[in-house]
Amino acid sequence: MYKKPVRWLINAFIKNSVMVRNSGKIAKPKSRWVFPYKKEHPTDQLKIKLLLNEKIKGDRIVGLQARIESGKVHQLHIHENEYVLVYSLKGKCLVTIGGTTKTILPNTMMFIPPKVPHRFYNKFSAPWEGIAFAIGTRSKINNVWME
Measured between alpha carbons, how far is 88 from 122 in angstroms, rounded to an integer? Predict the structure, then answer.
């Protein structure tokens, strides 16, 4: 169903990521844990550490480490222009993508195309952590909140 966008996303990342400043990049967190949406959506409880924020041939790629504490939620929203890949590192999280809701375990990859509603709810006893990459055309990730 998503073969063409997935292929574009993978090709863009592979072809262009090595061209960042013509020398590649090794990324470590650039911040402490922060709540990036605290002002625009005070009930959203996603914590992030920024890893990468680069322009690539007119597009942009953002990489971040994500964390959701037990009982907290990253509210239902869409991204207007970004393709998002999320890789689960540790913990469990109840994830909704489009009309599907599943418990996500470590070593699971999720693909979220633009305009597809998604939500991460940690109803479990331990924190959930993952790595996310958003590739799109805006200078900043633009969430359209749905709850």
Answer: 12
- Torsion sign across C-alpha atoms 95, 97, 113, 6: positive
Q: Return the domain boundaries, the chain.
A: 3-145
Q: Which residue has the higher pLDDT, 138 or 147?
A: 147
Would the pTM of this model clear 0.70, i.e. be above it?
A: yes
Please name the CATH architecture into which domain 3-145 falls.
Sandwich (2.60)
Q: What is the DSSP string of 17-30?
A: HTTGGGT-------
- Whether residue 67 contacts residue 97, with contact meaning beta carbons closer than 8 Å, is answered with no
Contact 64, 51 (CB under 8 A): yes
Terminal Cα-to-Cα distance of the chain (whole angstroms): 27
In the structure encoding, which two tokens stand for residue 17, read together? Answer: 């990521």
Among candidate residues 86, 83, 75, 80, the one with its CA nearest the CA of residue 35? 75
Asked whether the beta carbons of 121 and 73 are under 8 A apart, the reply is: yes
Residue 110 has pLDDT above 70, yes or no: yes
Residues 6+ apart with CB under 8 A from 107: 87, 88
- d(CA 6, CA 112) in angstroms, rounded, equals 10
